[in-house]
Model the fold of this input.
Amino acid sequence: MKFKDKINTLRAFETVCYQMCIFLLGNQSSANQAAEAALIELYNDQDFWKAEEEGERHNRVRLVAKRRCLQQKILSC
Done:
């Protein structure tokens, strides 16, 4: 998949990812950092790109976003 196609696909999940992060962290700055890290991770995530159904990709976005939020929370302590 080309760079531009990957970026366009990730943009479709950007809002969902950010909403998950803001819900879990409750802080806009931390949520921005966690969502950005999650999207970068997803860009390089072969499982995300191999998923054939959008529901599978949504699940992967939620999983990665949760993990990044947890890491962000640990770093802020």
User: Anything to note?
Assistant: The mean pLDDT is 95.
